Every structure is written in C-alpha cells, then in structure tokens.
UniProtKB/TrEMBL annotation:
A single MF term (Gene Ontology): hydrolase activity
Superkingdom of origin organism: Eukaryota
Pfam families attached to this UniProt entry: Abhydrolase_3
Tagged with keyword Hydrolase: yes
Alphabetically ordered keywords of this record: Hydrolase
UniProt-recorded name of the protein: AB hydrolase superfamily protein
UniProt signal peptide: none
InterPro entries per the UniProt record, alphabetical: AB_hydrolase_3, AB_hydrolase_fold, GDXG_lipolytic_enzyme
Domain Alpha/beta hydrolase fold-3: 106-323
Species of origin: Cercospora beticola (Sugarbeet leaf spot fungus)
C-alpha cells in the first residue's frame, strides 16, 4: 500500500474554536457609528463577558475588565495625594515657566458606575487639562458602592469641595474665584449634584463652570422611559441598571420614598427651576449613540429654560466610551481639546488657544 494512504499515527489537531462573542454590535448601528469605535468593538469589546453578569463580591472590583485605552499622561509640576476624613483627593499642579500667583481649579469626579475607579482614573485627561489649561486639578477618590451606597459618594463630593474652599489655599495657590466642577459619566452625576448642593449651602460660592462629559442625569430613567438608544454599546441599559442597583439599593421603584431634596441629589433633572437657575455656565459633551444622550440633552434644555448658559457639543457617531478611548479614537482627542477650550474661556478669557503657549495675564 502506498505510504500516503496509511493513516497517520498521530491524532489530527483539533480545529481552533472561534472566540465567544458576548457583546455583538447591533447591526442597525454598524454603519452609523464612528469607524474607529467599530474596529475597537469588533477587536476587543465584543469578546468580553458583560460586567453585569458577574456576581459581586469583594474581589469583583479588581476583576472588572479594563477597557479604557487612554493617551499618555503628561508631566505636571506636582502630584500629591491627600487623605480627608472620608475620602482622598489627588492634586495636580501645572508645570509652568511663568510666575502665576494663583491658578484656577478644576474639581473632578471620575467615572466607574459609582462602583469602581479611584485616584488613578482618567489621569491622562486630567494631566492634559492641568498642563494645557494651566490649572490645578483636584480629583476625588469618593467611597464606592456597594460597600458605600448613596449618599456616601455625594457626601464625599461635598467634603472635597469644603476642603477646597477652606483648606486648599494653605498648601496650593488656588484661585477660589475661578473654580470649575466637572465629572465623567457617573462622576458627572456627582458633579451636577454637588453644584446644586453648593448653590443651596454656600450661596456666596460661585463656580465659573460646570463641565459634564456624558453624564448620568436621570436615575429614574428606564428602557422606553427616558432611555431610547437601547442598542447602545459600551454602556448598555442592563449595565447601568446593575450599577444603579448597587448605588441605590432601594431601587428606582422606591424613588417616591426619598424627600424632594434627596430626589435631586440622585437625579439632578428633578431639581426645581429655582435651584437649577443657580447653576453656573455649563458645558456638556454628548455622544450621539450613548444610552444617556436623551436625558443629557433634556437636562441642557432644563438649564436653559432656567436661565443658565448651557452649551452642548454633540459627538456624532460616538458612544459612551468616547473619553475612555481617547488614546485610539480621534473623536476622544477632539473631546479633550474641546473640554480644555471650554475651561480656558472661563479660566483665561484673554487667551483662547490651549496649544499656543500664551502669555499669562497678570
């Protein structure tokens, strides 16, 4: 018999199994989304088990997949962590060849669904802001759910602002007449809540800007009742409901159990117009195919109806991950530049270009 007809003495190798797709991109969105995001989703995100399918225990936070693809952090003049009573803050001071007696300040709240993130979150964006806007950036390491559900994070936000107003000037050249308050995603929720709370508690304190990037605004929203991009990738409605269940263990069905003030400490859009009218000038970044786009646009309309100057930048074709993916998405880098521009308009109104190395005014 011809040797080539003999069966091989070795077993055939098994055929390679294709990886399991857990989060496919909805076909209706494929031609509408930013092609750079589509490439990332097809290469990476679709193969990850959704976070909301994980059973939460003390190790879950460290096992959450890290999807962010940030740009490189910039060198700053100083970085220091400070422990407060219930939370910590990280302070970034810009490196500058100019003598500046006092710097404007951005008080920042990171994303993470109220359950993850910390002082290392979004440092690429924050160092970029620190250097290109020549401002001191203070990012808050607020307590996280489910170990510390509402109102812990909101209380920590207020503690951080109180430290900024009463203590920070002892250590840093902060200009309390030029303070912006901002946040990303659920951090945007905390930032908006803090602005409203501060307006009621500290009427003499006047922040110059509220900077919100794809913020969570309405914690009463549900699929079909406030959320309409139900096929939105990255932040899905099931994922946000999972986050919410840990931050608000009573759940949205018990919203009526909260006092009127507590309601807008959870959902800023529920604040009365007389409170909203106290908000400073506002800049909001909205991703077109974000689950939160509708509620964010509605909130900007509420602010305008209350007499607040509210600007919205819509990032067409983008998803909730636009800032987190700034290292690979052109639109993410565009957002960073736009955010700095919004800050410069209130921090340094005589100089508008964040890339030109302006002469500092006295």
């Amino acid at each position: 018999m011809n040797q080539w007809n003999n069966p091989s003495p070795f077993p055939s190798p098994p055929l390679a199994q294709p990886p399991t797709v857990y989060q496919p991109l909805h076909p209706s969105l494929r031609g509408l989304l930013d092609p750079e995001y589509v490439a990332f989703h097809d290469t990476c995100l679709q193969y990850l088990i959704p976070e909301e399918q994980l059973k939460w225990d003390t190790s879950t936070r460290s096992r959450l997949p890290t999807l962010a693809s940030p740009s490189a952090e910039l060198k700053v003049g100083q970085k220091r962590d400070i422990q407060l009573e219930h939370c910590a803050v990280r302070v970034f001071v810009p490196e500058s060849s100019q003598h500046v007696p006092r710097y404007p300040v951005l008080l920042w709240f990171h994303s993470g669904g109220w359950v993850s993130g910390g002082l290392d979150s979004e440092n690429d964006f924050l160092t970029y802001v620190c250097q290109t806007s020549q401002c001191i950036v203070i990012t808050v390491d607020y307590r996280l759910a489910p170990e510390h559900p509402y109102p812990a994070a909101a209380e920590d936000a207020l503690e951080a602002l109180t430290w900024l107003r009463k203590e920070a000037a002892k250590y840093y050249p902060v200009d309390l007449e030029r303070v912006a308050i901002g946040g990303h995603s659920t951090g945007g929720n905390l930032a908006a809540v803090l602005v409203l709370e501060a307006a009621c508690l500290f009427p003499s304190f006047k922040p110059v800007l509220m900077l919100l990037i794809v913020p969570v605004i309405d914690n009463t929203a549900t699929p079909g009742n406030g959320w309409y991009n139900l096929n939105a990738p990255w932040l899905t409605h099931s994922r946000l409901l999972w986050y919410r269940s840990m931050y608000l263990p009573e759940g949205p069905s018990h919203e009526d159990d909260y006092s009127t003030r507590e309601k807008w400490q959870i959902s800023p859009n529920l604040a009365p117009s007389k409170v909203l009218s106290k908000c400073p000038r506002t800049w909001i970044a909205v991703a077109e195919y974000d689950l939160l786009a509708t509620e964010t646009l509605a909130f900007s309309s509420q602010l305008r109806a209350s007499g607040v100057e509210a600007s919205v930048k819509m990032y067409n074709g983008s998803t909730h991950g636009i800032l987190a993916l700034n290292g690979i998405l052109s639109k993410g880098r565009e957002l960073m530049l736009d955010a700095v521009q919004a800050l410069n308009e209130v921090f340094w109104p005589v100089r508008m270009d964040p890339l030109m190395g302006w002469a500092l005014s006295a």
